[in-house]
């Protein structure tokens, strides 16, 4: 499995997604995300990392248009992207969701595949890649945490969008399963898909992401590839954990 | 796994969505639990209705005059469907709320709103699922109709279908309330409280304010209970149907407005106010529509055919000034026996209620008088019977009363029967079938032949 250090950086001249000064406040509390600005380029895996409560999920939901924001803009290939149109170009996979629990995994996959009019080959290969076949006949509420996560990933990969936002995609997997899923995601980017992943396990983020956004208390504390972050922090041999502690 | 060319269809086929909604509603326990509860409720009401009807029928079998008062609509259908109405009011909101509430609570709604369907399509599909659920829970009541027919009872198609249509509209109304409650609530428990507050509050409104005048009367009109009354009297009122459809449409529109989680609350409120304004206009327009059809077999909402034909020729405005309080039993009699029928038969009728309460300390001779003004002529009466009022009106209009119609008399349908054996069906056979159907539907589709397993698009 390659890491952020040894992969060539994706082409960065034309951002696919631009996020500028995105701010979301809940009532009189402080901002959940505060002036977040970053961009994602086509074909990369961009990791949003940060501790619990850093605003990762809020940021993804705001980008997906599922959460109204107080200010800020999202653009797609340089053009403003209205919240109502975001679902046309990106698909957000939330964390902790077990959809349609009284139905079998097979029925849920069938539903999503039919909605997106996916080909037989796409359905078959997605199920195989994520190892969902053994539990297809199980009801969703009876799935283990890992298989429930695989089901959600299957839904995400059946969505034909250019950009996928995934909230904690490796949560519930052991080390081997995490590496397998990373391989699946990496193959998706090789086919031209762009992924923005919210990850709280820094080791996972270091292994799979091309670039990283370090989020703390709703603000971006640093961004770039691991090498760039090392330069920013003056830690030439620092791990992502060292860099994160230095920046937050 | 993925085509090189990304393709997001602008719209998706409706079939999978509808199938998913139907699977969801039949997979849950709410629908089946309600169905099991409705069985004994409807069965007991039906058996009681048949018993009372039989007691009344025994003497009527010997007397054609007594028989004319025996209508299956009043004696069997309304009481039987009355218990169904209670079940729909109290239990159906839970079934409707589940259609949306389950997805909100599990987080699946955040996936659903990203699929290529418009919010209006999502809600329309959910409403279709709610109507399908209503059809399922109406099975015990429909089987009561069949049981009545098996016992040899008479069913008039028009008034029966009219009553069913009324209950369908009422079910749609309760379902729309449930969906709206679900969309504005964080969880199903809160949604249930909101929906029941509306449905049960509507009962309270009806009990406490019915028969009053002024603002109280207007508020009582808002009660959901009022929606079924004309249908129970065999009347199909276009205005009422339009009003119910407008309210259902408004609730559905509000549900659509509040569905997308990414829309700011301020925008939702502005759109909601627009919806409310539109429905107020629609209700105002619908209130002007007076067309109605008397579908009762005994024509209880109409004068005789000859009178109706003659009254329809009286083109000048008729003004009726009534010096009675709205809660006075004489006014209630007058409205049922005369005013309602006149409003249907005459092209231009204006009823003015003086709305005065009788002064016990200083009684007025005018209280109780009813003035009829037709053109430049007027007359006074205290009667509430059409036998006296119609000749008065014909005299004011200067026309001869029609000859009495022959052969129009309602014969009545007395029947002495026992529904005790039918209780076995409602308390045993039907619940057993429901449980078996529940088990069958909850079974997962067989592995063999699954198109996913065969690698074919499901």
From TrEMBL, chain A:
CDD domains: ABC_DR_subfamily_A
Function description: Involved in beta-(1-->2)glucan export. Transmembrane domains (TMD) form a pore in the inner membrane and the ATP-binding domain (NBD) is responsible for energy generation.
Pfam family, any one: ABC_tran
Protein name, as recorded: ABC transporter
Residue ranges of the TM segments: none
UniProt key word tRNA-binding: no
ABC transporter domain sequence ranges: 17-242
Source domain of life: Bacteria
Organism expressing this protein natively: Bradyrhizobium centrolobii
Keywords: ATP-binding, Nucleotide-binding, Transport
Entry keyword annotation includes Protein biosynthesis: no
Gene Ontology MF term list: ATP binding; ATP hydrolysis activity
UniProtKB/TrEMBL annotation, chain B:
Pfam families named among the record's database cross-references: ABC2_membrane_2
Top-rank taxon, per record: Bacteria
GO cellular component, one term: plasma membrane
GO molecular function list: ABC-type transporter activity
Coiled-coil annotated spans: none
Organism per entry: Bradyrhizobium centrolobii
Record flagged with keyword Transmembrane: yes
Ranges annotated as spanning the membrane: 30-47, 76-101, 122-151, 163-184, 191-215, 235-257, 269-289, 422-441
UniProt entry tagged with the keyword Isomerase: no
Protein name per Swiss-Prot or TrEMBL: ABC transporter permease
